[in-house]
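Structure ticket #2291
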Amino acid sequence: MKPSAVLLASVAFAASGVAGSAQEMANEMTLVSWGGAYQKSQLKAYVEPYLAMHPEVTVVWDESSAEAVAKLRAMNEAKNITWDLVDVEAADAIRLCDEGLAKEIDFDAELAAGDDGSSPTEDFGDSLVSDCFIPQIVFSTTVGYRTDMVGDTPPSDICAIFDLETYPGKRSLNKRPLANVEWALLCDGVPKEEIYDVLATEEGQERALAKLGTIKDEVIWWTAGADTPQLLADGEVVMGSTYNGRLFSAIAEQNQPIGMLWDAEMLDFDGWIVPEGLDDARLARVMDFLKFATDSQRLADQAKWISYGPARASSAPLVGQHADLGIDMAPHMPTDPNNAQNVFVTQYEFWADYRDDIDAKFQAWLAQ
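Resolution: structure written out below.
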């Protein structure tokens, strides 16, 4: 584990709602996230405001969320839990909960009620896909392309990824199977409603890898969400997958010549898990932070910095304009009706059950 160099300095004190509590709380937290524009949105929306209320606290960031399951398994085996709060995708939260590596949450007792008076369970609704998962955002994995490298007919269909004749040049794809294998089967003729049934079979998995094999020599495989926007900005790829918020940042904030393809975007939830095994003082601090960081206003504030939809229903009416650009953020969300005409909702239970096996097969295929 290599924590980033970001060690947040404490800032001016303002009394918090739990000031004076007799419960001992640790004064340092290691937060695990994904780096880049997403981590900045977390920093601005709720970490900095929390530190403003708690000048005794410091936060260290670790950008290892993509490896969270493997690393938490290793920490548990070593009986040395060094992380305090971990940002993960929904399917990974289910895996960690099922394996006893994440703390079960009493949502209505431990999280803040909605600004509209709703209980946390009512407010988060269907995003509560696991007893251990505290949702933050709805995001999508989608595709960006260089507008000056696609000729007069920019791509409008996800299968453009596999069309080397119309769109020659390098692509960038995630060095993990999720999204890649679904798109591969879809573009190999499998009806969308049958994708996961097919993918549950050995033959279906081989079929997905065979389709990906048709472009394998033209793919740069990425491991961090910031990789594709940088590759696009540098002109090293003609198109590539990444998270919609990363593309928004490149397009709207950096004015890069990039377009976004919403077709067959893979909708997913992302949120926090609390590692099992924290001592009482560390756990008390984490739960105090979580109650603040996942309330209605904080999740709405996150959308000021990145185009991910807040996971709480009560947060949606509070979403406004970009903090720096002054543009309305709602039309840039993956759930906006204009963007969500052909969505692909990730099946969290499927990936919780099949992730290890398909991951292993995918990595072996990459090494061939």
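Closing remark: The two ends are 28 Å apart (CA to CA).
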